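Q&A log
Question type: sequence-to-structure
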Amino acid sequence: MDGQRADLHVHTRASDGLWSPAEVVREAARIGLAAVAVADHDTLAGVDEACREAERLKGPRVIPAVEINTDHGSTEAHVLCYFPDLADQAFRSFLATQVESRLERARRMVDLLGTLGLRITWSRVLELAAGGPIGRPHVAAALIERGYVTGLQEAMDKWLGRGRPGYVPRRKLTPHAAVAEIVRAGGAAVLAHPGLVGCDGLIDELMPCGLVGLEAHHPAHAPAARQRYEALARKKHLVVTGGSDFHGPGVTEGAVLGEVSVPVAAVQELLARLPRPRPGASGSMRSSGAQGGVVQSSGGR
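Response status: OK
Response body:
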């Protein structure tokens, strides 16, 4: 790394990642990233720990973020929120509702799988989640542990994917509503991995709601798709973002930390697109993350 790159899509143990937020920051520093966005599913729980570790190391910059799962027709659409106001209790409540919905959905999946002869326990799913928001990967892990499937993809393909016998629909949230909530909380809304959504028309639909960026660079995008989405973003005057979608070493979802990244200038572009100015949310501000949620990098290590 040249110290001028940012990985703007990283998961930690606060949701479905394998590493703690501090471990993610230490690795980001080791490989020379200038900035890393902690973007766990439906929670900001990992941000404070990541910020403290970045302060201790004096870099990299930690970008507070969250990935919100939504439904668009018959497919999923994920929306990334960067730099929300961390003191916004309404946004915290919104995320808590999302987490509670995940919990209830997973519990119903466990019950449904039991009727199908797949005997996994709710207590074990909770243990596998290790205190983080519960989702299908934790139910899948319980299936793998019991030998019903050999891996996450098989679990999804045979039992937990949309339309499969153990699938339970989640609480319906549209990407439009998610973008509106992000804007209300003062954050910058970016459509995650649009190639997986498979509906480019959604981009135009979300722009009037407040969408400001497009995740053109993602492990699931082939090189041609990355170029196409980058060109599309520039044409529509959206911020070009990207990241590894890192979940941990050896996890097939996403890529190695920092393997997919964008110039650190993208961070400043996101800050410039915040719907309202906020103390602490500036590139020159050093902060623990309690207010502006930005830790200033010393240029990477």
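Response note: The longest strand covers residues 61-72.
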